[in-house]
Design a protein that fits this description.
heterodimer; A: mainly alpha; B: alpha+beta; Aminopeptidase; 7-stranded mixed sheet; 5 helices
Chain lengths: 44, 174
């Protein structure tokens, strides 16, 4: 299904990312490279 | 040129899981990253979901003419403490371009919003209709962002309420 841009939702989500900071956001499980790092730490 | 985005179930009738793997392998190569190492852990989960391919559970992706931006699992079920079915969105994963690239915050926000809008659209018609949508936070590292997301989304006119409960972001539609 086609997705139309919802500016209100975009503004809210961008605000949430800004509030935690891009660095903290990129440490979430939304990014596969971080999951890999977590597993490496567990194995160590 | 403005991109046109789709939220599509991966399978026989549209883009396939193999299409997504091929695109993300190419994206990894653009950043000199090894796709097999990058993808081993989350993709073992996706492979299992794809092979199960139940009517109420499937893999969905945000895609456009140039490839795939995100993938997630969508499950539709009746669960305790809800007066109707719930659409659960789990294992959200953004593409290698979002992972390894240094993009503008609006681009990251846009990818998440498209997942959210995809879930909203799915929950509004057909067999996956639901008044409640839940997003899963997989890791403790997700909680600060999900908490911020709750605050930001709860103030919009789109939803009746947005609350964190345990590892889930509970969204009630209007």
């Amino acid at each position: 299904m086609k997705i139309e841009q919802n500016d209100e939702l975009l503004s809210a989500v961008v605000s949430a990312i800004r509030n935690v900071g891009l660095t903290a956001f990129k440490k979430t499980s939304l990014f596969a490279s971080n999951e890999r790092l977590i597993e490496v730490k567990k194995a160590a | 040129m403005v991109k046109t985005y789709q939220f599509s179930r991966l399978g026989a009738e549209g883009p396939t899981y193999e299409d997504l793997l091929a695109d993300w392998r190419n994206q990894c190569e653009t950043f000199d990253e090894d796709f097999d190492t990058y993808s081993a852990i989350p993709f073992s989960v996706f492979k299992e979901i794809q092979e199960r391919d139940a009517e109420n559970t499937g893999l969905y992706a945000v895609c456009h003419d140039d490839g795939f931006d995100a993938v997630c699992m969508v499950n539709h079920a009746r669960i305790p403490k809800h007066d109707g079915p719930v659409l659960r969105v789990r294992h959200i994963l953004l593409s290698p371009t979002f992972d390894f690239g240094e993009l503008d915050i609006a681009e990251y926000g846009g990818a998440l919003v498209r997942i959210l809008q995809g879930a909203l659209a799915l929950s509004s018609e057909g067999k996956l209709q639901a008044r409640y949508i839940k997003l899963h936070a997989r890791s403790p590292a997700d909680f600060p962002f999900f908490t911020a997301l709750q605050t930001a989304l709860d103030g919009t006119s789109v939803f009746e309420s947005v609350k964190m409960a345990g590892a889930w972001l509970h969204i009630t539609k209007k």
